[in-house]
C-alpha cells in the first residue's frame, strides 16, 4: 500500500517538477546552470517522498575545476532523483535525442542546455561530440556522463565506453569520477525508511598530454578506481546497518 501511495505522489511530483523546470528553461533558455536547478527540483522532494537517506562526500565535485568530464555509475531511473542532489553548477549531460519527446521532462532537458545525440546517425553523433569539446573548452561548463552507456541495475559496474574519455582528452580537461553505493537492489519502497545511499567524488584525473592511444589505460584506471570506491561505500553502509562502529583514526 505504501509503495502504491509513493508511486502516485511521485507521478504528481514528476509532472509538477517538469512544469516548473520548463518555466525556468523558458525564462533563461539553454543556460548551463538550468540543469543544476532542475535537478534539485526533481531530487529534494523525491528523496523526501521515498524516504531515502542520502549521505554525500562530494566536496571535490562541488569545488571542481571550471570544466571537466564527470563520470558516474548508472543504476536505474531513480538516478535522476538520487544524483540530482549533487549536480554541480554549470553542468550539462549527454542524452539520447528521443528524450526530447518525453512529456515535460524532455522539453526541460532540452531547454536546460543538455546535449542530445542521435545514436542511430554516426555523422550527427560525431557533430554533437565536437560540440561537447567546444563546450568544455570555451563555455566554462562541465559534462556529466554515464560511461557504462546503460543502467547496470545494481549488478556491478559494467565495462566503460570510450566517449567520455575521448571528450576529456580532446578538450584537455580532467575526468572527475563519482561513485554511488549500490542502492537499486537494496531499496524497499514499501517500508517507511526505504534505504541508505552514499555518494562520493574521487580525486580528479588529469588528461593533460594524453592522446587517443592513452584511452584504454585511462578507462581501465577510472573503472578500477570507481569499482573500488563503490565497494567501499557498500561496505560502509552494511557496517552502519549492523551497528559496527568505524575504526578510530590512527594516531601518529
Automatic annotation (TrEMBL):
Its EC number is 2.3.1.51. The chain crosses the membrane at residues 7-26. It comes from the Bacteria. GO terms for molecular function: 1-acylglycerol-3-phosphate O-acyltransferase activity. One of its GO terms (cellular component) is plasma membrane. Pathway: Phospholipid metabolism; CDP-diacylglycerol biosynthesis; CDP-diacylglycerol from sn-glycerol 3-phosphate: step 2/3; Lipid metabolism. It is an enzyme of class 2 (transferase). It catalyses: a 1-acyl-sn-glycero-3-phosphate + an acyl-CoA = a 1,2-diacyl-sn-glycero-3-phosphate + CoA. InterPro entries: AGP_acyltrans, Plipid/glycerol_acylTrfase. SUPFAM superfamilies: Glycerol-3-phosphate (1)-acyltransferase. It holds the Pfam family Acyltransferase. GO terms for biological process: phosphatidic acid biosynthetic process. Residues 68-183 form the Phospholipid/glycerol acyltransferase domain. Keywords: Acyltransferase, Lipid biosynthesis, Lipid metabolism, Membrane, Phospholipid biosynthesis, Phospholipid metabolism, Transferase, Transmembrane, Transmembrane helix. PANTHER family: 1-ACYL-SN-GLYCEROL-3-PHOSPHATE ACYLTRANSFERASE. The HXXXXD motif is essential for acyltransferase activity and may constitute the binding site for the phosphate moiety of the glycerol-3-phosphate. Belongs to the 1-acyl-sn-glycerol-3-phosphate acyltransferase family. This is 1-acyl-sn-glycerol-3-phosphate acyltransferase.
